[in-house]
Amino acid sequence: MKPWNVFGLHEASWGERALFFVTMLSMLALALYGFIRPESLTTTLNGAFTWVLTYFGWWFILLGFILLIIVMLMTFSRYGRLRIGGPDAEPEFSVFAWLSMVFTVGFSGSILIWGVGEPVSIVQNPPPKPYPVEGASVKSMALAFMFIHEVFPGLAMWYLPVAMAFGIIVYTHGVGEYKISSMLGGLIEEDTVPGLYWLVDLAAIVATIGGIATTLGFSAQTMASILGRTFGLEAQILTYAIFVVIGAVFLGDVWLGLRKGIRNAARATMVLIAISMAILVVVGPTLFMFELTLDATGVWLSNMFRLMLYTNPTADSNWAANWTGFWWAWWAAWSIFVGSFVARVSKGRTIREMFVVLVLIPTFLTWVQHGLIGGWVLAPGNFDAIAGAMSEGGIPAAIAQALLVTPLGNLLAIMFVLVITGYIITSLDSAVFMISAITLGDENPNAVNRAWWGGLLAFFGMMSLELEQFSAIQALSPTLALPLTVFLLVILFAAYKVARKHAREAGDIDVEGESLISTQTEEPSSED
Question: Domain ranges in the chain?
Fold first, then answer.
């Protein structure tokens, strides 16, 4: 057997092999350093986090606003009728399977983790006075910021631009190679600047690893805290064991592929989410949850632009950059991976259909979940104990404490562990699928290469358990996302040029028979 076969690189070019080994070895070295010197890595990551958000937090906030405008213009102009893969392309997945993959990959465990962490943190440490919204209670304002960051406009700013650009350029236009750098084809030819395409793919893979590692880290520490504080178990050892089980399921999914592996894991996770939220409505402070959600919704919708552009430059603190700047940086780090994955599973759908499934429907789903979770942890009878636990042990401890003060908390804890596990499996499946695809330039990468990337990401997740400070994990996303922010604008411009060309060639696009969401799917393949 040739050595390249061991890594799934037997058909790869020398540039693709170099991309694999450079990324793999550098990320592996970082993870090993985290195991050996967790205190040093924590200090370094926190320092990078502070520097990026202090000096570039404003840039992330401004860029998010610019991307939102571009997305809305592209979606509701004539270009919104462009079909990913060309006018004759047909959908590959049913609407529910499509939505499940988009939703579980795009949000992962952040709904639970930050749904508890952000509102409680903001109530404990609100923005400097004068508050951005006069007359609103601190709790309603805290939940309104949560809606801004993970409901809307956050949903429309980051994933959809990459999904549109990747879908239009790679699938509709057909540039050839399935790589992030291929989106530059409409502007800069590969030979014009030697090595540019390779560097773009390297940066995209590193940012994707940083984004998924952040979520794996959050999820791993939250799972450990729930198991340890709620059930009194040896949390860290048990969490390592769960990661071994997750790894085994992941390897099975790798061999099952996109249609059976990722699709089925995503659908199961959606069902678990629905059951968990139903239980929370029954056992939680139901009346307070509903009333706070409605009040915060009014604050959110009435002050959307004020909240999303809030910076308070005259204040001494860096509050806005540490919240909105961090969120937009995290979205940016995830945007390459999620956007390209959404484009992959959206072939046969129009840009407007992608907007519905990636923005409109998730806006409703995340609004419901964050409203319920926020009302649960901010309720007068729960807040003090949860806030105290957060002050001592961070967000994972706060989640565990919330379960302890809730009737049937053990049942809810089991559901949350299952949901987090489902998110980890789905995100890991999807991330390695896209990282491998970008590395090899193949939209259906081989299982061996995907298994190597999966092992690296799982190793990152376990490494995060060694980091004492929860804040160190969140530093990966903004640090690695900063170089990609300008790239997002470049690829959108390239997508606009390609979209305009196709619109003209199609005679302003024939849309006869188009529906809001096409339910037609291809005939089942032999993989089903």
Answer: 12-505
Q: How far apart are CA 503 and CA 96, in angstroms?
A: 29
3-state DSSP assignment of residue 184:
helix
How far, in Å, CA of 20 to CA of 18, rounded? Answer: 5
Q: Which one, of 472, 459, 517, 430, lies nearest residue 107 by Cα? A: 430
Residue 295 has pLDDT above 90, yes or no: yes
Topology of domain 12-505, CATH: Amino acid/polyamine transporter I (1.20.1740)
Query: Which of 181-190, 406-415, 458-467 is least confident?
Result: 458-467
Q: How far is CA 90 from the centre of its chain?
A: 26
Q: Check: CB of residue 263 under 8 Å from CB of residue 97.
A: yes
Cβ contact 302:389 at 8 Å: no
Do residues 219 and 113 lie in contact, with contact meaning Cβ atoms separated by under 8 Å? yes
Cβ partners under 8 Å of residue 125, min gap 6: 319
- Among 36, 505, 63, 117, which Cα is nearest to 321's? 63
Q: pLDDT category, 183, cuts 50, 70, 90?
A: confident
CA 500 to chain centre: 29
- Report how far residue 34's alpha carbon sits from residue 388's, in angstroms, rounded to the nearest whole number: 29
Measure the CA–CA gap between 385 and 398, rounded to whole angstroms: 8
Q: How far is the C-alpha of 416 from the C-alpha of 87, rounded, in Å?
A: 42
What pLDDT shows up at residue 510?
Answer: 44
Helix or strand (DSSP H, E) at 219:
helix 196-225
